[in-house]
Amino acid sequence: MSGILNSSIGRKFAMALSALFLMVFLVMHVSINFTSVFSEELFNEMSHFMGTNPLVQGVMQPILIFGVIFHFIMGFVLEAKNRASRNIKYAKNEASGNSSWVSRNMLLTGLVILAFLGIHFYDFWVHEMTVKYVNGDMSGLIDPNNAESGYRYYEELREKFVSPVRVGIYVVAFILLSLHLLHGFNSAFQSIGANNKYIKSLKGFSKVYSIGIPALFIFIAVYHHFTH
């Protein structure tokens, strides 16, 4: 692994694999969250299953956290090396004429997304870890002493989107995620060797994904803000 990461091609390949892994996770994440728009009961059931299943919590969750950290660290490494290698080239060529704003600012959009993830983790993951493993409440109930009180997940989700400021942060973050994905999606497939035969189809799919997934997250936040 260290040998692979020491080469430029190896780093790009590893970056692409981590990106594809996170893209799959985003589909799963938005699918679960979207159920909150049309079924409180289904969202609660799915959230409780994901939050208490040993395989999800003990295996998938650590892998996901590692994937996020690895992706961002590798992104910083690649950006630093890219900047170092193109300093001389950009002295002769206008950068804006050779690349898009998104491709030149992947580090910036990545940093904003990383800051947003910090807020998101604080809102949901830290809270869940505190309730389940600090307070010792694995019931998922609004009132752990009352089995009839119902699960807490739906109400907690809606509560997070009461503040227009927080909703605004979510909207901006997901717009930047969309821009990040528009460039990153194609780069990921190119890095793992997708050839020209599939490029046109991949570009079409990447646009649908890169715009559609963030748009769904934005819709969920805005929907719960205005229907609370």
Query: Would you tell me the structural class of the helices and strands?
Result: mainly alpha
Mean pLDDT: 84
Largest sheet: none
Order of helices and strands: HHHHHHHHHH
- Count of DSSP-assigned helices: 10
DSSP summary, beta strand count: 0
What is the approximate shape? Answer: globular
Helix content: over 70%
Radius of gyration: 20 Å
How far apart are the termini? Answer: 49 Å
Low-confidence stretches: none
Q: Strand content of the residues, in percent?
A: under 5%
Overview of the structural elements:
It is a single chain. This protein is 84% helix and 0% strand. With 228 residues, it is mostly helical. The model has no long low-confidence stretch (mean pLDDT 84). This is Succinate dehydrogenase cytochrome b subunit. InterPro entries: Cytochrome_b-558 (IPR011138), SQR/QFR_C/D (IPR034804). Keywords: Membrane, Transmembrane, Transmembrane helix.
